[in-house]
Amino acid sequence: MKTLSTDPALVHTFREVWAELSGIGRAPDGGYLRFAWSPAEVALRDWFRVQAARRGMPVTDDGNGNLFAVWSPTSDERLSGAAPGGVLTGSHFDSVPHGGAFDGPLGIVSAFLAVDLLRERGFQPTRPITVAAFAEEEGSRFGVACLGSRLLTGAIDPQRAAALTDRDGISLGDVLGATPAGARPELVARFDAYVELHVEQGRALAGPIGVASAIWPHGRWRFDVEGEGNHAGTTLMTDRRDPMLTYAFTVLAANKEARLRGAHATVGRVEVTPNATNAIPAAVRGWLDARAADDETLAGLVEAVAKKATERAGRDGTAIRFTAESTTGEVRFDPTLASNLAGLLGGAPILPTGAGHDAGVLSAHLPTAMLFVRNPTGVSHAPAESASDADCAEGVKALARVLEELSAQ
Ligand code: HGY
Ligand code: MN
Ligand code: MN
Ligand code: MN
């Protein structure tokens, strides 16, 4: 194994390992198309298995598409050598369409390199250290965010998950060839804590590393607007029941109501039927992504948007219906754990995030923490997402320090 403990060596090694991934699933615009179980994401799963094998870390699939590679101390009789357990770290491989390179993979690459760093220092954990790759964290393919960790923890019914379909009508059950295993409480019980390292998705960090205090409550609401399809040229304006008007009003209302509340909202996805230039749409389907610092602000925001959109539909002669697709309540990470880790990391700042994570799902079951690596522009979920090699190397060192602390107890 290469010498990592000097910074230049670690930066160099990070760059080398990162280069192994950066071409997988990259689109011409520099963004990534790494949808769960797509050829690109399967290639990343294969990469995960190779990395684990190189390190003598047995890999387990939990039956929900989540992968776990474990470094079991020889002295640990609690677990057979191959069973995952102890201190869990990792993240996800999947991306939003044309997402950035770092969101997800950085946490997995950093976990393997942190293991290397600890081994190079001759560290021997008393508890196992397990590296995870969670499935479908972005919900880009099947529409439910953190699908893998929700299945593992029983937060979603496996039958419902199996029936979820992608835009080609392929279901998760088709992809897995079976109903997912669903809740694995006996597996979750083997873990003592979960620490996820993630690229910052904002630009609050002045230094290379931050620690998460909370995840804002957030969710996605689908809204369907029914109107009347008709000829774009011959239909009198007074005779139109145009759902695109109601849709456009809903988008503006979401922006206005979010600003009024210091919350965040956007409509990033829309489907139009029949989607023809010279036809007044019969129907428009949009997805609202809304987030706020606390549950009642978020509820108030979504309620206000739905109310105003429904009033507008009345004026447009259309009908609108909102359906919650996947929502996450307020996640407050354990403040003692967060401040202990911040202290361990030389007083790293502690800050909330508006982004959802598997750590949010696991925090209901395990002591959980997140480390953030500085993102100089704050851009994420877009090709321009970035982090410097030096800051990523600092992230590996920080994660190694945390894993050392938690796996030595
Ligand atoms: O959408 C999110 O907040 C996360 O990046 N999955
Ligand atoms: Mn993301
Ligand atoms: Mn992520
Ligand atoms: Mn995450």
Automatic annotation (TrEMBL):
Copy out the cofactor comment. Binds 2 Zn(2+) ions per subunit.
Matching InterPro entries, A to Z? Answer: Amidase_Cbmase, Bact_exopeptidase_dim_dom, Peptidase_M20
Cite the binding residues for allantoate.
Answer: 220, 278, 291
Gene Ontology molecular-function annotations: hydrolase activity, acting on carbon-nitrogen (but not peptide) bonds, in linear amidines; metal ion binding
Q: Which Pfam families match?
A: Peptidase_M20
Residues that coordinate or bind Zn(2+) 2:
103, 138, 381
> What domain of life?
Bacteria
Q: Does the keyword Lipid metabolism apply?
A: no
Binding sites annotated in the UniProt record for Zn(2+) 1: 92, 103, 198
Q: Which UniProt keywords apply?
A: Hydrolase, Metal-binding, Zinc
What is its cofactor? Zn(2+)
Similarity comment text for this entry: Belongs to the peptidase M20 family.
> What is the protein name stated in its UniProt record?
N-carbamoyl-L-amino-acid hydrolase
The organism is Asanoa ishikariensis
